[in-house]
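Sequence in, structure out.
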Amino acid sequence: MINYITIEREYGSGATEIGRRLHEATGIKCYGGEVLELAAKKMGVSVEEILDIEEKSVDSLSFAFNMVEKAAKGEGADVPNSMKLHTIEDQIIRDLADEGPAVFIGHCASNALKDRDDVLSVYIHGSKTFNRFRAIEKYHISPSEVDKITDQINKRRNNYYYSTTGKKIDNINNYGLVLDSSILGIKTCVDILADVIKI
C-alpha cells in the first residue's frame, strides 16, 4: 500500500499544481514550500538564504574526502550549511510523515523516507516548450529571462539532489513512476497519482 508520494521535478512541469490538486482530490496532505519554511525557521535564516544554501550545495563525495583529509591533518572540519540543511529537512520530512499519509514535493523526500516500504518516488518532467510556457503564464517570468531562470532553478535542484543522494535527479532509475506532464496533461497526472493512493 502506498501512503507517501515523493515528487522531484523540472521547473515549470506543473509538479506543485499536481501535488496541490492531488490534495484537493484525495484529502492527502501535500508539503512543498512548507518544508523550506520550516527549515528556514529551524536554522534562523530567511527562505531566500535557504535557497542560496541549496544553490551552493557541495558534492557529497568531495565533501567526504575533504573531511577525511582534514581529520588526517588534525584539523577541525566545520560542517557546511548545506549538510546541516540536508539533515534538518530530512528530519522535518520524517516528522511530517509521522503525522500520516502525504505528498512531498522536492527536498529529496524519497531519501528522507528511504527506510519506508510504503513510498512511491515520482519524477515529473515536460517538454522545454511546455515548461517555458508555464513558467511565463503561471509564475509570470519575463520571456526574456525565462530560459536563464529555468536553467538556474533546475541547476540548483540538481546540485542539491546530487549532494544529498549521490544520484542525478533526472535518472529514471531513481523512481517508481515517471510522468511527462506535457504529454499527459496536469489533470491526467493527478488522476494517475490519485488512483495509486486509492489502490
